[in-house]
């Protein structure tokens, strides 16, 4: 796994995400949540905190936005980022290398999805008996994007989910 993670290519992103997650957990073992996102994800930290309110971080939770399905497997779309509870990360830590190997060698090829880090974390959640939670205000773009007219103009503007209106920066 170290040889995969040390490469500088697209398939190496899943091991890098997992290694980074384990590093963050070692440095901050009491952090209630760890949020993973791509470099192009728009995050308003205060809104993220509001989205996680009411959830118990000691439970094994994987929290994100709109779900997707690939080859029959449901996952939380990573485009909007994914929040992992302390309970999830604590359960993953002792099994991370084993589950990562299983993903790289078996599950990723079976689903024809590699690297697919968001699908990888959904696989981890299933193996750990974790709960996936969909929150309506996890956006891949800035919130106002969803209230713009469709590309080309002339159309009716999209509408933000009701609970997200107060989340605008």
Helix content: 25-40%
Shape: globular
How many beta-strand elements? Answer: 6
Q: Biggest β-sheet, characterized?
A: 4 strands, mixed
**CATH topology label:** Spore Coat Polysaccharide Biosynthesis Protein SpsA, Chain A
Describe this structure in words.
- It is found in: Membrane.
- It comes from Hemiselmis andersenii (Cryptophyte alga).
- Keywords: Membrane, Signal-anchor, Transmembrane, Transmembrane helix.
- InterPro entries: C1GALT1/C1GALT1_chp1.
- The model has no long low-confidence stretch (mean pLDDT 82).
- Helix 5 (96-111) crosses helix 6 (117-128).
- The protein has a four-stranded mixed beta sheet with strand order 1-5-2-6.
- By secondary structure, the chain is an alpha+beta fold.
- The chain is 37% helix and 14% strand.
- The chain has a single domain, classed as Spore Coat Polysaccharide Biosynthesis Protein SpsA, Chain A (Alpha-Beta Complex), CATH 3.90.550.
- A hairpin with a 2-residue loop joins strand 3 (67-70) and strand 4.
- It is globular.
- The protein is built from six helices and six strands.
């Amino acid at each position: 796994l170290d040889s995969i993670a040390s490469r500088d290519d697209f398939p190496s992103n899943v091991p890098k995400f997992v290694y980074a997650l384990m590093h963050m957990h070692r440095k901050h073992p009491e952090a209630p949540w760890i949020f993973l996102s791509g470099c192009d994800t728009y995050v308003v930290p205060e809104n993220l905190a509001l989205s996680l309110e009411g959830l118990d971080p000691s439970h094994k939770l994987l929290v994100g936005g709109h779900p997707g399905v690939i080859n029959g497997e449901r996952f939380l779309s990573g485009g909007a980022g994914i929040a992992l509870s302390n309970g999830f990360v604590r359960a993953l830590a002792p099994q991370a290398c084993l589950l990562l190997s299983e993903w790289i060698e078996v599950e990723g090829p079976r689903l024809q999805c590699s690297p697919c880090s968001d699908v990888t974390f959904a696989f981890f959640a299933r193996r750990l008996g974790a709960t996936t939670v969909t929150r309506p205000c996890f956006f891949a773009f800035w919130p106002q994007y969803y209230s713009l007219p469709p590309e080309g103009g002339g159309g009716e503007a999209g509408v933000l989910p009701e609970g997200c209106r107060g989340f605008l920066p």
